[in-house]
């Protein structure tokens, strides 16, 4: 059984703009630089690190210019974060492993194209090159984004259909947990 958040009305977002929530060192800017080697993007880095982690390595001035890098930090107001997310069509899942994976499920509910590490929980939702992109952040390779509009359509379909299925199945889940 998969959990889904209620999708909101999908807004047009820029498929050449990336939201990267820098949380840990395993997924970092050098990985993004390789992933987007042949695809022109602007990258927004949201710096809100998990405890004990730092931005390593930091983008240099040349990279900041090439990728039009902008930054934000922890937002006290959720609407501030939503405004930034709304502008971006691509979301980098911030960790190599997740429990439920609320951050990428939230982005999916917003209609974003997800790029995630090929591991649970992400690969239990995302099918590479169909409704998102799965990569190995230990050995990142450039992604072919020639089908990104189709991937986005499929991701949005997954968000809608997954939520509808979750609504139907959640009663079974409650019964299972109670018994």
UniProtKB/TrEMBL annotation:
Residue ranges of domain Glycosyl transferase family in the record: 78-150
One Pfam assignment: Glycos_transf_1
Listed Gene3D superfamilies: Glycogen Phosphorylase B (3.40.50.2000)
MF terms in GO: glycosyltransferase activity
Protein name (database record): Glycosyl transferase family 1 domain-containing protein
UniProt organism field: Helicobacter didelphidarum
């Amino acid at each position: 059984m998969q959990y889904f958040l209620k999708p909101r009305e999908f807004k047009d977002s820029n498929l050449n703009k990336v939201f990267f929530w820098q949380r840990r060192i395993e997924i970092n800017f050098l990985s993004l630089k390789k992933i987007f080697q042949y695809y022109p993007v602007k990258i927004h880095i949201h710096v809100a690190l998990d405890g004990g982690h730092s931005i390593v390595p930091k983008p240099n001035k040349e990279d900041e210019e090439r990728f039009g890098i902008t930054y934000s930090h922890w937002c006290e107001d959720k609407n501030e974060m939503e405004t930034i997310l709304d502008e971006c069509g691509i979301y980098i899942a911030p960790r190599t492993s997740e429990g439920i994976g609320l951050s990428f499920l939230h982005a999916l509910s917003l209609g974003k194209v997800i790029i995630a590490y090929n591991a649970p929980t992400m690969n239990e939702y995302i099918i590479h090159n169909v409704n998102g992109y799965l990569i190995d952040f230990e050995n990142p390779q450039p992604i072919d984004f020639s089908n990104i509009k189709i991937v986005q359509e499929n991701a949005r379909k997954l968000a809608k259909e997954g939520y509808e299925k979750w609504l139907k199945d959640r009663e079974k889940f409650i019964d299972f947990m109670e018994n």
